[in-house]
Every structure is written in structure tokens, then in C-alpha cells.
Amino acid sequence: MRLLTTLALVLLLGYTQSSLAEDTERAAVLAVADKIFAAVHTQNPDDFRAFQLAEGSVLTFRPDPSGEPEKLQLRMSSNQEFLAGMKEPEHDYREFWTSEPTVLIRGPIAVVWGTFEFTIDGNFSHCGVNAIDMAKVDGEWKVVNIMWTTEKQDCPVSRKS
């Protein structure tokens, strides 16, 4: 009986340590995602460079000017090209999650996927989905690729409203 109790305690302790490590990594990955939202607000390329790998990419899907819902414009650029196109903000840009994002982590690779809302000067602009690929480089999570959609309809209710 004593052996079974000891074995159960060892297994429980191992599970608890593993769970704590997973929670810590999840929090670290989400902290980087939150830095994206802060950098969207400042529009300062250096804020993005602090957590982004230059070799990565940005991919966006926006409504086509024709207005056809099934038709989307795809824009793709390297992270470097994306940052080179930034300019001093003329408005107050804000982006935030509208639901708890899904975080998947395995070893040095993580993916964050979730719905967001984007406002300009406090007014709704659009919603969409962010998909953020990350890699752990030299002990730090870095953004490799970011993809998002730009949607005006069927937006989830904001957590900030």
C-alpha cells in the first residue's frame, strides 16, 4: 500500500510540475501576442522588431473592393517590408482579443489563434482572426509569421464593449 501511495504522489508531482511549465510557456507566448497589440497602437517599427524575426512574413486577407463577400484580397510581405511601410500614426489604433485565444505549443514552436476587434479613434473598424506563428529563439518567444483577416460583418461581441 505504501508503494502505491508513493507512486501516486510521484505521478501527481510530475503532472503538477508539467502543468505549471505549460502554464508558464502559455503565459509567455500570450505576452508576446499582447506586445503585438501594443505595437499596433504605437506604430513604432522598433516595438515590432523587439519581438519579431526579420525573416518572417505578414499575410492579410481583406475584402475585395468589388464588395463580393467570397472574394478577398491577399497581401503578403516580409516582416521587414511590413515595417518599412509603417508611418507616424495619424489615429489612435487599438486591437484586442474578443475571446480567449487558442495557444498550441510543442517544444520551440507555438501558434496563437483567436478573434480580435480593431478600433480607430475609439470607433469600430473591423474584426477578424489572428494566426500568429512563434519560435523560441535563444530562450525567448519571437513572432515568425502573422496572418489576419479583415472583416466587417458577423463580428463577435467585444470583451471591451
Q: What distinguishing features does this structure have?
A:
seven-stranded mixed β-sheet; alpha+beta; globular; 32% helix; Nuclear Transport Factor 2, Chain: A; 161 residues
CATH fold type: Nuclear Transport Factor 2, Chain: A
Enumerate the spans where pLDDT stays under 50 for 5 or more consecutive residues.
none
The N- to C-terminal Cα distance equals 56 Å
- The oligomeric state is single chain
Q: Roughly what percent helix?
A: 25-40%
The DSSP helix count reads 3
Mean pLDDT: 85
User: Can you tell me the CATH class?
Assistant: Alpha Beta
Structural class by helix and strand composition: alpha+beta
Q: How large is the share of residues in beta strands?
A: 35-45%
**Sheet with most strands:** 7 strands, mixed
Backbone CA Rg? 19 Å
Based on the coordinates given, report the CATH architecture.
Roll
**Gross morphology:** globular
Brief sketch in words of this structure:
This protein has helices at residues 2-42, 45-49, 79-84; strands at 52-63, 72-78, 93-97, 102-106, 109-120, 123-137, 140-149.
Please characterize this protein's 3D structure.
This protein is α+β, with helices and mostly antiparallel strands and 161 residues long. It has one domain (2-149): Nuclear Transport Factor 2, Chain: A (Roll). It has three helices and seven strands. Strands 1, 2, 3, 4, 5, 6 and 7 form a seven-stranded mixed beta sheet that branches. A hairpin with an 8-residue loop joins strand 1 and strand 2.
Write the layout of secondary structure elements.
Elements: H1 2-42, H2 45-49, E1 52-63, E2 72-78, H3 79-84, E3 93-97, E4 102-106, E5 109-120, E6 123-137, E7 140-149
Parallel strand pairs: 1-7
Antiparallel strand pairs: 1-2, 3-5, 4-5, 5-6, 6-7
